[in-house]
Amino acid sequence: MKLSIKKIPGSIPGIVYVLAVLTAVFPIFKDFFNLTSFSALQDSQTMRILFFTFYQALLSSIASLVVSIIPAYYSWRKKNILSAMIDLSFFIPFFFPVVSMTIAFTALYGRSGLFFALFPGVSLSYSLIGIVVAHVFYDSPIFVKYISEGLRSVPQSLCESAQMDGASKTVIFFSIQLRLILPALVKAFLLVFTYCFMSFGVILSIGGMKFSTVEVAISSTISSSFDFSKAIVLCAVQFLVIFLLNYTGSKFTSFEGSVQTYPSSKRTALFTGVFSFIYVLFEYSLIVLSLAGGFFNFQASRFDLSGLINLFSGPVNAKYGISASLINSSSVSLITALICTVLAYIMLRVSSRFSEVIILSCLGISPAFISIALLYLNISWLVPYPLLLVFGYVLLNMPIAFSFMYQPVKAFPSVITEAAKMDGATSVKIFSRIHFPLMYRIFVSSFLQIFAIIFGEFTMIYTMQIQKTFPMVSITNYILSSNRMFKESNALSSLSIFIVISVFFFSKILEKKHRSLLE
Amino acid sequence: MKKWLVLAVLLIGIAAFSVSQLNVYVYESLNWIEDKLIGKFESSNNCKVNVVRLGDAGNMVARLKLEKKNPKADVVIGLDQSLSMSAISEGLLQPYISPMLSKLRDPNLIFDKDYYVTPFDYGAIAFVYDPSKLSKIPEKMEDISAYKNSLIIQDPKSSSTGQALLIWTIALYNDSWTDFWKKMKPAVLTVTPSWDDAFSKFEQGEAPIMLSYATDGAYSYHYYQSTKYKAFIPKDGAYVQIEGAGIVKGSKNKQLAQKFIDFLLSDEFQQEVALNQWMFPVTDVKLPEAFKYAVVPEKILSVDIKAISSQMDKYIKTWEEIMYK
Fold first, then answer.
1. In whole angstroms, how far apart are CA A46 and each of A29, A39, A215, A237?
2. Is there a contact between B80 and B166 (Cβ–Cβ < 8 Å)?
3. How far is CA A437 from CA A11, A414, A513, B255, in A?
4. Would you list the DSSP string of A367-409?
5. pLDDT tens digits, B98-118
6. Is A257 exposed, middle or buried (0-12, 13-18, 19+ CB in 10 A)?
7. Is B186 on the interface with A (CB under 8 A)?
8. Taking burial as the number of CB atoms within 10 A of a residue's CB, which of A46, A348, B91, B282 is the most buried?
9. Are B47 and B21 in contact (CB under 8 A)?
């Protein structure tokens, strides 16, 4: 029998996904949910949190969009180191852990930071501005990627014809380029808005409890009020908001042009170059500071490897499970990233609009709540933690892989696939001989993105509190910092970033080899 | 027949050599008990103790509630007065009157008169400050409000010290506690979810004052041989936080759990409390030299913890309305 995934009805991926989510949440829902908890929605405090969550997400998304326009334009027009660095910044939101970002952010923009020393009174911490700036740091690269790739996919012939007809650059931009990239821009906006709406670590560490979002409220309802039923209601509200957003987003159909690159750089204004340079400085300064923190003592201005050495010394390693956490985080990230990438590909091949909306809406699933639900599966049926972690991460990251691979998989020329089918190729053969080699870059990128997200993930493992049984890097780092082992914590933070960057670097080598093989 | 005999001998052998396992839930910073004391308890009771570290004290109660139908823990350590009341009202603990309670230095330390929770340490809540950044030390609680954006406190919903401060101010100002907080608001730089987060920001120099414990001077002296940070307790009166341990309802090792509670009050355990937990031991063991730098309260407030805890949700809601609006 020939394998053909095209025979699967388009609604199946969405249904399977919903069933998987229900499997995770049903036991806790059955045992703890109480309808009276809906009264929490009448509470002024809940309404304030909901309003603030929406407000800060909107503000952060608009700010990220505004900041990203010029670097995106520069990246589109230029082909040099600066534009390469702008392009690479896309991975920052996915690989840079909030714990590391906070330390570097405070060192630069906090009341004890560099900027405060240079400009007394200027501090971004504990304010809405600080939250917005941190979100711009994390999310503007997403806009840069969507806008620059959108501009690259606008056919040059179209612009040239308009120019020949006497259209000015402004007219060309507004009536051709902007109109064609608008759907991609809307999708990027919704994605960034979703991330900001769900924000947890940035809110707590840069803002403080005063700036609680719905996700923070869910976590605190679970671990402080022990009111699981109210947490379920808050989760439902969060999910509903994200669902409505994604449903709206699904109405926009992207322009599916092929990405073109200019053979050489085009001229840009000096201001564009300077602004892009400052942008790169802003994005990379926190990473460099965080990386250097592991082996450089900024207070004493000297190299200091004691943190790194202590980290792997017998007692510290045994007590905090440093090696085990590195192995566990790498294994779980590797397995989950692989599963998510393959499943996202399969689902995208067959999914209907219904499935797409359902899966993308699951970006609104609360990591704090899903982790408590998974913990309850362990308590009730002794499901092992590693299995639960992989399951939970797949649920949380599938929408990201799905959204990342959406355009390339959907836009893949069906003529090639159909021709292979007529030649009798099975779905497995079509994947291994055609789709995988031709979409190699997107598979690797998606894999890396998910790998990096899980490697630095904090909310879920913090809520599950399974450090003793199954240590993971980000929580180990947090515990080291809580126990005032700041040097060791900085060293582990640097090591984590180094591991993720190495994986990226390795993938680039593979990609290069693959390209030369194809050529 | 031979087969059955071998099997029986094997089973008897396994039973004879198997040791019972006691599951003990603690919050993260109580991890020192694993290094220093658990081994002693294990060898004297021929058992295995599995210490499970669960973030903060709130996480422990959340976990116990999740496990209520299927309890996995035998003992829980680190519940303060307010969290103890929550755990008791949720039906998560079972009472036990330890014979070692007679060793307590002050019977008032038994804050739960139904004996669900046995106290094992205590300490006054205080404000810790950096003397190099503070020109004048506040004397009364209200004096702190003069320092704009200078104080780091913890959230009363997620942190036991944060909740202790709220209880403290309710005990101090009674019905006008809300007026105090309205006045205090401009002095608060940020409200963190936990003590650890607050201390980390304080150590980075983000603010000159933070809500902490009266023993912080002792900590500073012990580790830095200087009182880099000092603590003060407002003269209006101090609030003492008492931490206790309880036996989990449905524990499968009740007898061993009781022995463990007794162990917490033994000299062996109590001697380690001061320099590891940075709280005062509840029995009359000798205090280390560093503790002469711990601030001793002149006046301790009497608090009806049961009455305040029963209204805690309401108090927190009002507090949030003032501080987060």
1. 21, 10, 12, 11
2. no
3. 28, 16, 12, 64
4. HHHHHHHHHHHHHHH---HHHHHHHHHHHHHHHHHHHHHHHHH
5. 999 999 999 999 999 999 999
6. middle
7. no
8. B282
9. yes
| Per-window interface: A 221-280 vs B, CB < 8 A | 222-226, 228
Q: Does A479 touch chain B (CB under 8 A)?
A: yes
Tell me what the mean pLDDT of segment B281-305 comes to.
92
pLDDT of residue B243: 96
The whole domain housing B204 covers 124-240+295-324
Answer yes or no: do B113 and B202 share one domain: no
Give the pLDDT mean for B275-303: 93
Q: Is the pLDDT of residue A104 over 60?
A: yes
Q: Which residue does chain B place closest to A126, by CA atoms?
A: B190
Query: Which residue, B159, B200, B162, B197, is CA-closest to B181?
Result: B162
Same domain (yes/no): B94, B219 = no
**ipTM for the assembly:** 0.85
Task: Check residue A356 and give its pLDDT.
Answer: 87
Chosen from A53, A109, A221, A223 to mutate, greatest number of chain B CBs within 10 A: A223
- How many domains does chain B divide into? 2
pLDDT, mean of residues A94-116: 85
- DSSP helix/strand/coil, A153: helix
Cβ distance A226 to B193 less than 8 Å, yes or no, reads no
Whether B184 and B307 share a structural domain: yes
Domain co-membership, B141 together with B267:
no
| Look-up of token digits 């994200």 | A242
Is the same domain home to B86 and B148? Answer: no
Residue range A321-356, pLDDT digits in tens = 999 999 999 999 999 999 999 999 999 988 888 898
CB-based contacts of B6: which residues, under 8 Å, 6+ apart? none
Residue type, A424: G
- How far apart CA B157 and CA A227 sit, in angstroms, is 12
Q: What is the CATH number of the domain that holds B232?
A: 3.40.190.10
Question: Are B315 and B220 part of one and the same domain?
Answer: yes
Among B211, B151, B141, B212, residue whose Cα is nearest residue B180? B141
B206 with B319, same domain: the answer is yes
Q: Which residues contact A322 (CB under 8 A, 6 or more apart)?
A: A311, A312, A316, A476, A492
- pLDDT, greater one: A144 or A296: A144
d(CA B193, CA A478): 14
Cα-to-chain-centroid distance, residue B152: 19
pLDDT digits (tens, 9 = 90+) for B52-62: 998 888 889 99
pLDDT by residue (tens digit) across A464-485? 888 888 999 988 988 888 777 8
Q: Above 70 in pLDDT, residue B18? A: no
Q: Does B130 touch chain A (CB under 8 A)?
A: no
Mean pLDDT in chain A?
Answer: 88
